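Hey, resending since the last one bounced:
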Amino acid sequence: MKLRGPTRIGFALAVLAFLSAGPAAADGPVEAALDQFESCNYPAAIQTLQAARAKAPSDARVFYWISRSYYELRDYDNAINYGDAAVRLDENNSEYWFWLGRANGGKADRERSLHWARKTKSAFERAVELDPKNIPARRALIEYLTEAPAFLAGGSDSKARENIQTLVSQDPVQGNLAWGYYWDEEKEYDKADAAYRQALSLKPRETEPYFEAANYYRRRGDPARMEAVLEAAAKVDASDVRLNFYRGVVRTMAGNRLGEAERDLKAYLVKICPRSDDP
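The structure tokens again:
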């Protein structure tokens, strides 16, 4: 299942979480691994983390970051194995369960497996149970409940709506984005349009909501609205490299700005540090 929600974790927050808990024996090597992860050198991060694991075999954070690194390499089997180890060592960590769910979801998609789909749902549910304010986990659960077949894989339209209502009360921007996603899936495009407009009318302070809306307008074949959303995103953070990608897309869609599109897309390819959630 390709998630559309706010799945990019703030790296600084993840580092703070690492530094604030757990044994210190592996802190130095893992800090080095986090630098490697941030620069998208995932094989080097894994190598550094494996050395840290030998020194601190009970440090759940080490297993978590190994899992995250394998996930970025699309090696879902190893991501699941190390993610499972992380939640065994720290079973009440919502973030660990969320990323284990994502690894399960990657395997479910690749193998078209109902078994792994159900494990995906269970992990997302556990993440939300442990931390009801884990917005990426709740968004992931909403998407699963909306997309998955009810009888075979545990999808539920009513539970998706309940979670969206909860999310609206927690974070109106994310709640309206979730409604936009939901109505898009239901092919109720007038309602989806209204939800995305409402989300952006709240003036989000991060670029993620704007890009999520841009993706919606891209799928709807509406370059004019997509470009307006990108202009708003640029006012929030003009340095976000993903602006180059989306500008390239919208100028390609326009059909008469192909030179500009080529320039923007080349700039994106030069600057981007590839991550699973980036275009």
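The two ends are 15 Å apart (CA to CA).

Sorry for the duplicate.
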